[in-house]
Amino acid sequence: MYVVLETICDLHTQYPEISAKCSDNTRIVAFNFVKTCGIVSLYKSVMITYQLNKICEMLVPKIKELIRQGHFKDAAYWTINLQITHLFGIFDIIFPLILQDKVPLAEMYLNAAKDLALPTVQFLDSLLDKQKTVFEHCDEILTKYEYKDVKHTVLTYRPMSKLVTRLAKTYKIDSHFTPNLNFTKACSYMHFLWHKYRDGGMSCDAYRELARDAASTKPLQMDLITNVASYGDFDEVKYWINYFNIPLEEIADDIREDLKRHQPSENSDEIEMLNISSSSETTSAVNNGGATNKSKRANATIPNNYLTLALPIDCVILIDDRAKFHEMLEYLQGQLLIAFDSEWKPSVCNENVISLLQIATPYRVYLLDCLSSQLSDELWQQLGQRVFNNLEILKVGFSLHQDLRMLHKSLPLQLNLNAKTCYLDLRELWRRLKYLQIVKFPFGCGSNSGGSLCALTELCLGKKIGQIKS
């Protein structure tokens, strides 16, 4: 085959006029000779040498025959090279390639047939509807088209959701075109929040605020209630039923029965009136946007083994207007060392945007409201130029790569990301010290501790960061 390829290339080089002298019949013979060889370079050489693009109309039926015979890979290469992808639909080439686990080739095809990107993503997202399994959604299609060499591992939820995520990101498809993927992401996110709250890594108020934002639709609200009920926290179940104002008859029978079983006998009527006259504590909490935390974690006070702020409260300054921003710039520009951290509320479907930037010196803490409309692009550019890009100021942080990436993406700071000498990442320094094993920490060896900032502060200062109140 390689000899044939070399001969064809030599023919075209030595006799360029051969292309013009070829008859359509000769072109068909050339196509038939190599149509299923699988060598892309040979396809291209034959196409150029024999000018197969002149007989596209004659080749379309032959490519459809390749599809009927299950040669989807070859059909994809021919349609791409001949630039006739617009003549074939999702179920002709793209979906069969996905079923055969030839995803890279399917993506190459979509790069050539960009008009099919959105319909493809929408169709694949429809397979993620959890009323059926992915395979059950595809059963009718598989029967109709009789695809060959289907890899059934592809027809499961996890690989299909990953594919939809990647394609939507690659082709910049808006999240409202992928409702089933959005639902899955939101459910997973709420389950993550619940586990983090149960493990003590998040306060009740923080958990409920984030969960309320994530549960933006009725199905998500029902999933949240079902998930919480599966862990037996029926006080929390009652809170969410009241907050979302969901009629009790819409709650699953098993959850209603569990609520009755876990209700004290003297308050048995309360279950029947959850949406009308719940206890004053819960009702007041719902009206205020959050219920009283009934867990032990929320009522517990911060013990002495947690770090507290050593500065008076007037040293913590909120920056939300132009005058305060200029005053802060003048102060920071005279510092040799500052620490910074950024905060953003996680978003399930949209891109995360920084909402708060914290900058600290030994004597002041600045909280910059990144969402304030009074802070113009010009002010942020000054902060980038006079502070972050200033080589004479050492900027200290923990896991700086993530913070700098988010700052660069969210704010017009115009950061010089190559100016690495003016940044000190405590996490990276700690990793190197643990590897060298030449430093003894004041409150432990540090070799078996976790890699969090909380663990580092405990090793160095003997106290943890209070995560419940943070």
Automatic annotation (TrEMBL):
InterPro entries per record: 3'-5'_exonuclease_dom (IPR002562), Exonuclease_MUT-7-like (IPR052408), RNaseH-like_sf (IPR012337), RNaseH_sf (IPR036397)
Residues annotated as domain 3'-5' exonuclease: 318-410
One MF annotation (Gene Ontology) recorded for this entry: nucleic acid binding
GO biological process: nucleobase-containing compound metabolic process
Keywords: Exonuclease, Hydrolase, Metal-binding, Nuclease
Record's protein name: Putative exonuclease mut-7
Organism: Bactrocera latifrons (Malaysian fruit fly)
